[in-house]
Known about the structure:
Blueprint: E1 2-4, H1 5-11, H2 18-27, E2 31-37, E3 43-55, E4 63-68, E5 75-79, E6 89-103, E7 109-113, E8 117-119, E9 122-124, E10 126-128, H3 156-159, E11 165-170, H4 181-192, E12 214-216, E13 222-231, H5 241-249, H6 257-269, E14 274-277, E15 285-289, E16 295-297, E17 303-305, E18 311-314, E19 319-322, E20 326-327, E21 339-347, H7 349-352, H8 355-358, H9 364-369, H10 378-393, E22 396-397, E23 401-404, E24 413-416, H11 417-424, H12 430-440, E25 443-449, E26 452-458, H13 469-480, H14 506-515, E27 519-520, E28 526-527, H15 529-535, E29 554-555, H16 560-571, E30 578-585, E31 588-589, E32 603-604, E33 607-614, H17 631-642, E34 648-651, E35 658-667, E36 672-679, H18 681-686, E37 694-699, H19 700-703, E38 720-729, H20 734-742, E39 750-759, H21 769-772, E40 779-788, H22 797-815, E41 818-819
Parallel strand pairs: 12-15, 27-30
Antiparallel strand pairs: 1-11, 2-11, 3-4, 3-6, 4-5, 6-7, 6-10, 8-9, 13-21, 13-22, 13-23, 14-21, 15-18, 16-17, 18-19, 19-20, 24-26, 25-26, 28-29, 30-33, 31-32, 33-37, 34-35, 35-36, 36-37, 38-40, 38-41, 39-40
Helix pairs in contact: 1-4, 5-6, 6-10, 11-13, 12-13, 20-22
Amino acid sequence: MQFPESWLREFCDPPIGSAELAETLTMGGLEVEERRPVAPPFSGVVIGEIRTAAQHPNADRLRVCEVDVGQGSLLHIVCGAPNARPGIKVPVAQVGAELPPAETEDGEAKPFVIKLGKLRGVESQGMLCSARELKLSDDHGGLFELAADAPIGVDVREWLRLDDALLTLKLTPNLAHGLSVFGIARELAALTGAPLRPPQVVPVPAVIDDRLAVKVEASDLCGRFSGRVLRGVDTTAPTPQWMVERLARCGQRSVSPLVDISNYVMFELGQPSHIFDLDKIDGGLTVRWGRVGEKLALLNGSTVELDAGVGVIADAAAVESLAGIMGGEATAVSDATRNIYIEAAFWWPQAVQGRSRRFNFSTDAGHRFERGVDPSRTVEVIERITQLVQSICGGVAGPVDDQLLKVPDAVPVTLRVARAARVIGMPITQAQCAGAMRRLGFEFTEAQGEGGATLTVTPPPYRFDIRIEEDLIEEVARLVGYDNLPTDPPVAPIVARLRPETQRSAFAVRHRLAALGYQETINFSFVQARWEHELAGNVQPIELLNPIASPMSVMRSSLLGSLLQVLKFNLDRKAARVRVFEVGRVFRRDASVETTDSTVKGIDQPMRVAGLAWGDPDGLHWSGAARRADFFDAKGDVEALLAPLGARFEATSDHPALHPGRAARVWLHDRDIGVVGELHPRWRQSWELPYAPVLFELDLAAVLQRPLPLEHAVPKQQTVLRDIAVVVGEPVTHAQLMQAIETTETSGLLRSAVLFDIFRPQPVQGAHAAAANALAVGEKSLAVRLAFNSDDAPLTDGAVDTAVQAILERLQSRLGARLRA
């Protein structure tokens, strides 16, 4: 919400400066995000009138103008603007004037000083300015033409009030009453105690008896509908300069007088309206819900398809307007318009919310209606618009038709003074609460009960945010003043929450993954339903009632789809290597979950950590050929992430997102904590990836665990190493081999076992076939290095041989292994 401070002070003018006014609004809950002057500093620019404009003798595109700036003699100024002509009044920068600085190539801003000079041999005693040269707008098509009544010789800053401050407010969604200049003034009056001067709206008497038949079929869409016919308006009349300037300072471009008047009243009073070309309406108007198959060409040039979830205003032939959002092109006013119909209505917020997003645009009207607009002022708005239309465009007015169907009920809210004091944290009296309600203009009654004093407050129709007691307590707090709240230290001792040594932080997990070469991404928790079906096997995802976009309609139960989207985004931009991760929450149905302060009934929301690797894991390097990230790269990263805990990996073929022969479940302490593997070929083709990435997804709570470090003495004896090669069946896994070795009884001598070679025979023809085929079909040779040591005495060959033999026997009994010859 942007507006000029001068407009605000017309309704409420407290005796405070501009900076203090902005601070007062901010501390009152209406945050002033920015305060800046209308125009940057410049000096020496006055209003001048061009008396003559002759062709330059030496240049086709230049004119020599004689300009009156109120100094008696005329100034000779050379100008190249196409609209330089006698009789117009323009800003004149005299010799010595300083214009707003212009940025140079090196980025530095330097003031632009006007000097006496010559252009093509003709002396120029100043410069005629465009709006862009004064930094008033980006218009550089010609001179900035001022109003005909602008006084010659007066400083332009003074005449145009360019020292006026522009205030930009950052309003939260509950502050719908702050979406107008008068609404802000009402709040300022309550905060400062300065008198409030409401706009003077004088009812315009009806001269003609013309009416337009309007039928409201949906009271759940429209609670009140007001309208009036005006005939004989002149739409070619120019919008007054004061209105154009105010709209511009609100960030609104001038369009035409009728549109400008409608926008002006919206910014002034907060009530959007719409003006129809009466002659383009077929019959009367009907306010109803849309129908499937209907279409509407909007004022923004787009055509939308409607359904039963969108409110419309239709005539006998077609739909003419999106209710509370935007009018249609068919009944739009134009220069040929002579008869109009002014409409102002109350649209229920829930009937407007989310509709603009469905059509991928937003409007000022929809922004206000979906938050709540005062339903009691529609007739007043009609009168105000009529007043402005007649003063600018003329015309005669008919009577105001007002249909009051159903508006929000004013539900009283009770405020307990004792609870207000307890919540605010300072002594609050009944008089202070009553004073706050009185300054806000709320109707209330006071009472005394067993629990103390209470106030029963009836919210005004423009306050849609007053529903519970806490809302009233907030009003009391901000009227008392947040800066008046006590700064007493807390009574309860502050005890730091120390993380157990057996748990690391989520930041440490992020730091570890970054050290492994991954970059963090942050994605929406809303995803496409197709991702849930294909990548998570979730046939019943949690659907959103009001998605922000159609492709983001369900809550994710896996992070893999989000990472694949990031990969696709980067590959579309020719990325050669992608390694990304995300730490985020997933959402899945779980009937055992109950509602608490941090949970929602029936929905489990665990945290997950997931990663994706694509391309050469080492990047381009001179020492070796490029390769692709594979399953073992991702598996190694998972092991490094979980270290010093040792994870167990079991092959799996049941994960819908992963390759059935290149994926594994990750087990930690006999608990399934996640999965790692290569993307399924079906989804690689679906996502149009050159080749498959490798991914992992783990339960964050398990990843945060870490063992408590324990000290170990440095071995006093030398370690003895023995290598064995055993022949086993092809189905035997590394995990089975290691488990068999580590569970062998060796009297504590075995310290480690590491697989360092796998041999599978290749078919060989000829005399060497027998030697090469010492391994049968379906067998493989696994070479393991065993490390032995003892804390008591040096190891003997006999003790080591006994331990090795025990291991071989264990392997034979458990896995059917034999020592390779």
